[in-house]
Amino acid sequence: MEQERKTLIADAAISLLGSVGARGLTHRAVDAQARIPTGSTSFYCRSRLDLLRLALQRHAELDLADLALDAERMQDAQWSTHHLLDLLEHRIDDWLSAPKRGRLVARFELFLLASREPELAAILDAHRAHFLQVALAALQRAGVAHAEAVAPLLVMAIDGLLLDRVREHGHARPATRHRDLLQRVIEG
């Protein structure tokens, strides 16, 4: 029950970060968003930092779950650069889709908050290391040369592309532009 309540609180915090930004993230707002009794968020998260920590952990869980599904889909597939690019395009399109766009906006809010809060930065660094390992494994499986050097560039390129698309407010952009950018990063 306690873990379910924390997940509900974290999901509500992510939703608020994605819709109204960090300024709108208060304990009361989370209570209202989660439709739980007033004071519930304060019971589980005594401070704003506790709430942000919980939201950041949950956000990473959700992103890693998406990546795990991608890995399952590709488990039996023949891996090549072409297949990796297909997978990356799918992941980017999924994160930019209407149901997940708010979560994507919340990601960048959390990045900015972590730039001013060392404890959040440390959590983000640990998650980032895991994302780099996932990228490295995918690049190695696809037979990409110098995968160790390419993995951080790929993660940065995807983050930059996603941030740019969020800034555009979802205006359509040809998928070929995503693919071209990603291909240049992967192939050097």
Overview of this protein structure:
This protein has 188 residues and is an all-alpha fold. The protein has a single domain (56-187), classed as Tetracycline Repressor, domain 2, CATH 1.10.357.10. Helix content is 79%, strand content 0%. It is built from nine helices and no strands. The protein has helices spanning 2-19, 27-34, 40-44, 48-73, 81-96, 98-114, 118-141, 147-167, 175-187. Helix 4 packs parallel to helix 7 and helix 5 crosses helix 9. The longest helix has 26 residues, at 48-73. The model has no long low-confidence stretch (mean pLDDT 93). It comes from Aquabacterium soli. This is Tetracyclin repressor-like C-terminal group 31 domain-containing protein.
Brief descriptors of the model:
mainly alpha, Tetracyclin repressor-like C-terminal group 31 domain-containing protein, 188 residues
